[in-house]
Specification:
Nuclear Transport Factor 2, Chain: A; mainly beta
Length: 871
């Protein structure tokens, strides 16, 4: 044996002698034993392999009989819309081109003097946004009532222009239209007849102060930072040590203004690493960037380790002379390990059997819903609807019908508020309104098999900023799902009593990660300091908007949240405002409240708002007497229903009753079902039925008055199309839309009504929110469900159901009737290989813009989420 030496000794026993014949006999025996052993091992291996392949622990490609048919491909059947044109559809390419062409041709005559948004400075005039302006309801319904002979309503665009070049800079909205249809091909013909006027009737102030403007692509803020940051370089390197890429980053907090008189923000600094939102370093700067001249912008305050400095010089002097009270310096040896936890990479071992792919949804007989992809119209099991999409709040639904009868004219999110708490200037001053960032702009392409099932049907959506348009091919998904439980069932003995109806829902879904928008960036090296600026929101919330349609006429509106929480800097004075989730990171207490506009038309446009209460009553009944009365008779204590029609708008801002003893509904006092009961639809709270906790904060003083109740009902008006605007976020003291002003004492009995319904969460994050919050618990919803609207439960009409009949002999099997709808049996189509493409950007001529690298796309997506500074 190699490496070993046999040491012989005289004490060894004598060796046995063998003959040639004996050696041959033993050799033959060894060969036989070897063959038998090999056979046994092979047989055992085959048996073991067969056994393991037949268990759930091994995943192998399924083997199908050659006679098993292939399941239909998951393609939606074509739908026939009641009207040939979706009048709420986003602007088409030709319409956007016409708007841009009109503005370009009239920029001199209207004192527009527009600069291309890609090249504009803060002090220029440029187009900020272009999107559809929805038609009046009267005109829309007139068209839908007779689409074959009636003309569709005129199409208009809402155009937002930053007038930074005016003597008194302002932001204004304009209506541009009517827009030509796609049949007008010549440029001259397309621009004839278009007009333009300022849009003021939907706002409570004529102009938007320039200090409340949307974040644009200007580069001047980079020059401002380049001016103030170089002196900080040695101090920040000393205080926070080396970090990956030697970089810090920060995020801005809002609102930036109160009434438009200034524009200021606290910058909260963090380590620039994956999941940087969870790595604050405990350093804040307060900056003023009011007006259009970056030369006047200034640094106002610095805060570090509970020490407030009113100037850069004061902070650097304290650092230089040693009087600065310092935080512990990061541990260099453990730095990489300390940062890795904020990625989405697994931390521990996977759960048992997790190496197997989980169940997936397959429609074995083919998809059961219809889609007109061009008009974005959907129908399913008696439900039908048109879809819309806009920059401000993304996906919206129109003309929602059940069994051919309009139930909802409009269902659309209006605003999403996040109000934070903390003992530092970043968290305690933060009250974002996400419409400011644009939930539609923030819509991300959905991931097949993760965001939606593999067999979902996807629809695109496009938003517009200046001369650039951005399309997401998978902005919306539509799919049917088995909810895994029957919608109704019962066990009985009489004919027709025992049975169940399968529970299916149609889901329409879209996902927005707040902050996906355009921005400008610049890079300048000053001494040892490199500044890379991007502007986006301070938090990284992902909101999943979901509409679920049930077989019985119920709609569930559900919102789920995920993404990175906004981590605060942990120290012991923060205990009352959150939970410690790492050495220096806390999850800050905050409210999320999201408002929806629900324009119900219950059996017609004229409806009333009904309150139902359940209270305890005590009364004597005449049928109790004698011993019965003494033992357990009178008084009878039970519940009693009281139904009240709320007549005045001022009384129609309500909170859900304690213990849910009652509820609210939109009813039609002039329409009745077969049993003489008013037709209606109930508004039922689902998960987390909350409203805002904080009242009176200057950061939400008047701009989010819709958030103080669970539900409000107002008379519908064309000049009150929304409860908020994108600028409400920056103008809490003087918002363009003050929801309180919607309620002016009008009678709301049998009027065209709008319900404004809130969902949300009181979020106290813990360690389970790292790296990301989870959609299963960070969710909220409400239901719209029939209240005597039909004569019976219409889901009973489904033939995806079964009725069982008990046999006379208890040992016999039950007979059953499944209406001939037996389960399909076929080989599912293999899921398509995942190919994920991000948003596609196009210039004003609809040419695809040259792609950018990962770093640049990240900066574009994160705007003022992340403002990196390389030291």
């Amino acid at each position: 044996m190699d490496g070993y030496e046999l040491i012989e000794s005289k004490h060894d026993p004598p060796r046995a002698t063998t003959t040639t014949a004996n050696r041959q006999t033993r050799r033959a025996r060894r060969i036989k034993l070897s063959i038998l052993s090999t056979f046994a091992i092979t047989l055992f291996g085959l048996l073991y392999l067969h056994q393991t392949q037949s268990t759930v622990d091994t995943f192998a490609e399924p083997i199908f009989s050659s006679t098993l048919p292939q399941c239909p491909a998951p393609h939606a059947r074509s739908a026939k819309a009641p009207a040939p044109r979706n009048i709420w559809a986003p602007l088409s390419k030709s319409e956007v081109t016409a708007v841009r062409g009109y503005l370009d041709s009239h920029k001199a005559s209207r004192d527009l003097n527009l600069t291309n948004a890609d090249d504009a400075a803060v002090s220029d005039n440029f187009i900020y946004g272009i999107e559809i302006y929805y038609p009046p309801k009267d005109a829309a319904l007139a068209y839908l009532a007779d689409p074959e002979s009636a003309d569709p309503p005129e199409r208009h665009a809402r155009v937002t222009i930053h007038h930074g070049g005016w003597e008194v800079p302002v932001v204004r909205d304009y209506l541009v239209g009517p827009l030509p249809d796609d049949s007008q091909h010549s440029k001259q013909g397309r621009l004839e007849g278009i007009g333009m006027r300022q849009l003021t009737e939907i706002y409570h102030r004529p102009d938007i102060p320039f200090n409340a403007r949307g974040f644009d692509r200007s580069k001047e803020i980079n020059a401002f930072l380049a001016r103030i940051m170089p002196p900080f370089s040695p101090a920040l390197q000393d205080l926070f040590g080396a970090v990956p890429n030697s970089t810090l980053t920060n995020g801005a907090s809002g609102p930036f203004s109160f009434d438009g008189g200034f524009r200021r923000t606290w910058l909260s600094w963090r380590i620039n690493t994956p999941g940087n939102f969870l790595h604050p370093v405990g350093f804040w700067m307060y900056i003023d960037f009011s007006g259009t001249d970056p030369g006047t912008w200034k640094l106002l305050k610095i805060l570090y380790n509970r020490q407030v400095f009113r100037s850069q010089e004061a902070f650097l002097e304290a650092w230089g002379n040693g009087s600065l009270k310092r935080l512990p310096k990061p541990d260099e040896d453990k730095k990489e390990d300390n940062l890795r936890w904020s990625t989405r990479r697994p931390v521990g071992p996977p759960p048992d059997l997790d190496h197997l792919p989980g169940p997936r949804s397959v429609s074995f007989a083919g998809l059961r819903f219809r889609v007109d992809q061009e008009q974005q119209y959907i129908s399913w099991m008696g439900w039908s609807m048109y879809l819309g999409f806009e920059r401000d709040m993304g996906l919206n639904l129109w003309d929602v019908r059940i069994r051919g009868e309009r139930l909802l004219y409009q269902l659309q999110p209006q605003e999403a508020m996040g109000h934070y708490a903390g003992n530092d200037p970043g968290q305690s001053t933060l009250a974002w309104m996400d419409r400011y960032f644009g939930m539609g702009d923030a819509a991300s392409s959905l991931i097949p098999g993760y965001d939606c099932p593999h067999e979902a049907v996807y629809l695109p959506a496009t938003t517009h900023f200046g001369q650039t348009s951005t399309t997401r091919d998978r902005a919306i998904c539509i799919f049917e799902q088995d909810i895994g439980r029957p919608i109704s069932r019962h066990v009985g003995w009489e004919d027709g009593e025992f049975g169940a109806t399968r529970g299916y829902v149609l889901t329409v879904r879209s996902v927005s990660t707040v902050g996906n928008y355009e921005f400008s960036e610049s890079e300048s090296i000053l001494n040892h300091l490199t500044l890379n600026w991007g502007i986006l929101s301070y938090h990284s919330a992902l909101l999943q908007f979901e509409y679920n349609f049930h077989m019985d006429g119920t709609i569930e509106v559900r919102l789920s949240a995920s993404g990175y929480i906004q981590g605060g800097f942990w120290e012991d004075t923060q205990d009352a405002y959150g939970s410690r989730i790492r050495d220096h990171t806390m999850g800050s207490l905050h409210d999320h409240v999201i408002n929806f506009k629900v324009d119900l038309d219950v059996a017609g446009r004229n409806n009333s708002f009904m309150q139902t209460t359940m209270k305890q009553e005590s009364m004597d009944q005449p049928w109790f007497d004698g011993d019965d009365e003494e033992e357990w008779g009178n008084p009878v204590i039970q519940q009693k229903i009281t139904r009240t029609i709320i007549e005045n708008e001022d009384d129609a801002r309500v909170k859900y009753p304690t213990n849910m003893q009652g509820g609210y509904a939109i009813v039609n006092q002039d329409e009745f079902n077969r049993w003489g009961v008013m037709k209606g639809y109930s508004i039922i709270p689902g998960y987390s039925p909350i409203h805002a906790t904080v009242v009176g904060s200057k950061r939400n003083l008047h701009n989010a008055n819709w958030a103080h109740h669970n539900l409000a009902v107002s008379k519908r008006k064309e000049n009150e199309p929304s409860s908020s605007t994108m600028w409400n976020s920056q103008l809490p003291g003087a918002p363009p839309v003050d929801f309180d002003l919607f309620f002016d004492g009008e009678n709301i009995t049998q009027e065209d009504l709008v319900a404004w319904i809130n969902v949300g969460t009181h979020h106290l994050p813990g360690s389970g929110d790292t790296p990301n919050t989870k959609t299963n618990t960070a969710a909220s919803s409400f239901f719209l469900t029939p209240l005597n609207y039909f004569d019976y439960d219409i889901s009973i009409d489904s033939t995806n159901a079964i009725i069982l009949t008990a046999p006379e002999n208890p040992n016999d099997a039950y007979e059953y009737d499944d209406y001939g709808v037996s389960d399909a049996h076929c080989a599912p189509q293999p899921p398509a290989k995942l190919v994920y493409l991000g948003p596609q950007e196009m210039d004003g001529d609809w040419k695809i813009l040259k792609g950018a690298g990962v770093a640049e796309r990240r900066r574009k997506a994160e705007k003022y989420h992340r403002i990196p500074m390389e030291l």
